[in-house]
Predict the 3D structure of the following.
Amino acid sequence: MATRGWSVTLACSPGRGLDAVRERERVEIVEIITERDIRPFQDLLSFVRWIRLLRRLRPAILNASTPKAALLSLLAGRLTGVPMRIYLVRGLRLETESGLRRRLLILMERLSAWSATQVVAVSPSLREELLSLRLTCGQDPIVLAKGSSNGVDVERIAEQTASVDRSALRRSLGIGDSDYVVSFIGRLRPDKGALELAEAMCRPELAEDWLVTQGDIEDIRALDALKKVGRRHIALGWRNEIHSVLAISDVLALPTHREGFPNVVLEAAAAGVPAVTTDATGAVDSVVHGDTGLIVPTGDVVELAAALARLGRSPDLRQTMGARARARALRDFKSEVVWQAMAAIYEGGPPLSSATDGH
């Protein structure tokens, strides 16, 4: 956007990696602490800071995402008269909640949509879920291109992955060249399918195979489940890059319960690594079943293990699916494609989307 002549300010919570973003993007960055969970005093303070920021900037456009930050910033944007207020929906936390908490999250989503002038969903299935749950206050959500919030730099990921000495890195981890490696990249918690993945890796059909995870273990239940995999589980922790783990991977597993559109599947595709994911909202859009990977029912350990084992037994199938996944990422999910679709919204042109026909 900056190269198209826009003055860009990024406002977000402080966190790991923000300095790298500041250096890479070279735009103004404002830190506004926003807690994921409900914190009345902190939320009120964040709301006031949003009002002050928007009054100072007087932006033509406000693009907001994540449930809490979107709610606070879009309400502040409506109050301060920002002309274009975009709610970029990256997923629905309410899908894995119940009771009072779910009802509260539904209310938050509807308030965010009411405060926005345009709702944008990052995947076709997420758009359908927004409409099914009547969360958009009568608006018809747009999908950017074929989906995703930012696309992926396919060529860069492919080059970085190819630059890694796969055999040497495997040996350093105690993994043989011919061993079958399943990888998981992301936060390790129950709603990301960590429990099902650990249980699947303990089943007889995968009992000799490796699981490599990259990301923070955020839930004690996930930690306990992964311990059962034993020495076949290698936990790399959080890292700022993913090409090393992709280089040693045969298959990416994402047995998630909810997503918006999982970019990690596209990143794996860029490296020629097929994925096994679920039919959960968002995740179901990231793989073409039987072509670029496999889709299993959400929460089904038996089907997850069977799908991973199927790919484990067939290197040729993995290679074919990986190549097709990369071709799809190049065609539909390059970052420039998604950026152009968002720029069309910003600049008043027709959105580059086929939301009405499900694409």
Summary: The longest strand covers residues 84-89.
